[in-house]
């Protein structure tokens, strides 16, 4: 009797295991550069779990954090080549590929991730950016909050304070700004910044508050200058063939996990991280230089020059950069909450 009992349990267990293995019709490999366990990873995991639940388990998502499936700078191409099925990545990691998208990254546009993500998602939904993503199937786009300067030993208040410093640039455009102000500009993906700071390869970094927390940069930087230098744009996108080959009902599930709702989902993650990170720096006794009117005035000529230079460069290539920039200003009025 005992043998029959255990044989029955073994058979039932095997059937359950077999059912579980066969439950998913589609398995999506999702590559991204953020550390496992970070709030950003968790935000993407919530999207993955919601997709799985909405499909009754027929879509399974395997997350590959920390560049384990594709390097950050190569993950968009990894989706095109189907090394990954889905990625969340930074458009600026591939220079000159998303020039109109990156209009949103110009100084002073983004005040919060929620506001910036609203603008960028509307830009995409209204067709202003569609040509830049013709080789993948975009699910949603978003931005982080504004990027600032975080330095180890030297406080930066005025533009001339940057002279001689080695600063990690977030984008080519901001790198050119640093060079014009006498700094040495260094390019590297965010996961490599900590080690570069630790080894004194760089003196500081231009990054958002969320990035300072996720990549533990508050441990090494002691001066934080809130300049609203830029923002970063992000895209969550899928291989076109993977999407087109989905059954109609599963396409619908993917479609409901696209667009503004999930753009704002990730925006909430970033805005919360910004608050946490700033509080963390204050708790460590680090000095925060806030963006006062005086500080804004000191930096405005250099930041305005960057904006004009970028727009002029795109216009010279036949791209409607100023039209998109004006569109951004209009959308900003729709995306900025009215206080009071």
Q: What does it look like?
A:
This protein has helices at 2-23, 39-54, 75-80, 113-125, 172-180, 193-198, 209-214, 240-244, 248-256, 260-283, 293-316, 321-335, and strands at 26-31, 59-64, 86-90, 137-143, 147-151, 166-169, 184-187, 204-208, 223-230, 233-238, 287-289. The chain is of the alpha/beta class and 340 residues long. The strands form two sheets. A six-stranded mixed beta sheet has the order 7-6-8-5-9-11, with helices on both faces. A five-stranded mixed beta sheet has the order 2-1-3-10-4. It starts with a helix and ends in a 5-residue tail after the last helix.
Write down the overall mean pLDDT: 91
CATH fold category name of the largest domain: D-Maltodextrin-Binding Protein, domain 2
How many domains? The number is 2
Question: Major sheet: size, sense and barrel closure?
Answer: 6 strands, mixed
Low-confidence parts lasting 5 or more residues at pLDDT below 50? 1-21
CATH architecture of the largest domain: 3-Layer(aba) Sandwich
List the strand order in the largest sheet.
7-6-8-5-9-11
Q: Helical percent range?
A: 40-55%
Evaluate the radius of gyration. 22 Å
- Reading the helices and strands in chain order gives HEHEHEHEEEHEHEHEEHHHEHH
Number of E-state strands: 11
What's the shape? globular
Given the structure, what is the number of helices? 12
Protein name: TRAP-type C4-dicarboxylate transport system, substrate-binding protein
InterPro entries: DctP_fam, TRAP_DctP_sf
Signal peptide: 1-23
Organism: Marinobacterium iners DSM 11526
